[in-house]
Amino acid sequence: MIRVLLADDETMVRAGVRAILASGGESEVVAEAGDGHEAVELARAHRPDVALLDIRMPRLDGLAAAEEIVRTVPGTAVAMLTTFSEQAYVARALAGGATGFLLKSGDPYELIAGVRAVAGGAAFLSPKVARYVIEDLGCGGGGRLAREEHARARVARLSPREREVLGLVGAGLSNPEIAARLHLVEGTVKTYVSAVLDRLEVRNRVQAAIVAYEAGLGEA
């Protein structure tokens, strides 16, 4: 069972998110916070698998709370849950170490799948956020066609198996899921992922997923 900390200043929103997660049968909310400061304290106390944070909260906003949780509770993955999809929020959230960015207006399945993905060490961006990331935060700059060409050139450095792994990272799969899909042991997948990050010269799975999207691997 995935242990989740839920932080949102609206009680009704928390109730709705809690119900959606419960319906999936994979997650349980072990703590709830009404502001960012409380979220950090509860993350330290409960050490949840995932901290699901709203962005606009009193005392300490979700972005600052995310940065503090990533810094002080390294075993907890952070995902942002918000109605605000402006690129500045996406940029700061991802730069602060969040590996998921989900919209409250999204499908409930996205919420369940997103929590599962980040808990498993993968990255998960809602489709709308993924579009922002690709168009506005993508590596290489320039127009869309130029970025796609640049991404394909970077992917060409990879072996066929590494390209397979990158495509599955771009699809939001965790290491255990990739291992099952490719009939490999998890340790081998970790080695492949590390090699992919190194060859692409990216820092994390989110950036690798950007390259996969732009190169067209995420569509496989």
Structure notes:
There is one protein chain. The protein is of the alpha/beta class and 220 residues long. The mean pLDDT is 86. The chain has a 6-stranded parallel sheet, with helices on both faces. α2 runs parallel beside α3 (62-72), α7 (144-155) crosses α11 (205-215) and α9 crosses α10 (186-200). It has 11 helices and 6 strands. Helix content is 57%, strand content 13%.
Outline type: globular
Give the strand order of the largest sheet, numbering strands 1, 2, ... along the chain. Answer: 2-1-3-4-5-6
> How many angstroms separate the termini?
29 Å
Give the H and E element order.
EHEHEHEHEHEHHHHHH
Short characterization:
This protein is of the alpha/beta class and 220 residues long. The protein is 57% helix and 13% strand.
